[in-house]
Write a structure and sequence with these properties.
This protein has five helices and ten strands. With 209 residues, the protein is an alpha/beta fold. The strands form two sheets. It has an eight-stranded mixed beta sheet, with helices on both faces. Helix 1 packs across helix 5. It is 30% helix and 22% strand.
């Protein structure tokens, strides 16, 4: 498939690019500066300047951007809205690298992970921004979207494995009782979802065992 990865030089983005290429896909990256990533075609611009014409030439658009400071949290929502409006009533899929904070911790889905007392304060702003982005996404029934929440412990240094458990809306843990996944495993699951298309118009999550 022909895939666009927004934030292709980030922790998640570059791994998604690598695994998508290995799987035989064509990959283009959106980055802000020349030379930020090598080996693939790139669109050099702010993601908020992407046009419908640029986005809809791809089979799949992966939003792998993050905003880690209070003055940029709004970008999660702003970019989400731009992508949804551009991809509405088209054949281009949207896959979003989400967060764990919006996963539910009870069966009636009234309490999210970021509502719990032990949720790290330094991640609260980003988690709530990602949660708002997901709320917006759910309203667009005319977009083929998938929102992939990693486990709460998202490890940039950890190994890749094919031994993992998938979930949907609820916070889950692995065989050792840990909410853990490595970036490598996460990226491979996301690329598998591009091929298998199991979670159309759904949020899902995963932990590795």
């Amino acid at each position: 498939m022909n895939i666009l990865v927004i934030g292709a030089n980030g922790n998640a983005g570059r791994r998604i690019v690598e695994k998508a290429l290995k799987a035989g896909h064509q990959v283009t990256g959106v980055v802000r500066r020349e030379g930020a990533i090598e080996g693939i075609p790139t669109i050099i611009k702010d993601a908020l300047s992407l046009t419908k014409e640029e986005l809809t030439q791809f089979d799949v658009v992966v939003n792998a951007t993050s905003a880690f400071t209070p003055d940029t949290f709004h970008l999660q929502e702003d970019l989400t809205v731009l992508l949804l409006q551009a991809l509405a009533d088209t054949n281009t899929r949207l896959i979003v690298v989400g967060g764990a904070g919006s996963l539910y911790v009870n069966e009636d889905h009234s309490v999210q992970l970021y509502d719990t007392p032990d949720f790290p304060a330094e991640y609260l702003g980003l988690a709530k921004a990602q949660g708002k982005a997901l709320d917006i996404i759910r309203k667009f029934s005319n977009v083929d979207w998938t929102f992939f929440s990693p486990a709460a412990i998202f490890d940039a240094e950890g190994p890749e494995t094919d031994n993992y458990t998938l979930g949907s809306e609820n916070f889950i843990v692995n065989n050792e009782g840990q909410p853990y996944i490595s970036y490598e495993t996460y990226a491979q699951i996301l690329v598998d979802e591009i091929k298998n298309h199991k979670f159309g118009r759904q949020r899902f999550t995963a932990v590795q065992n």
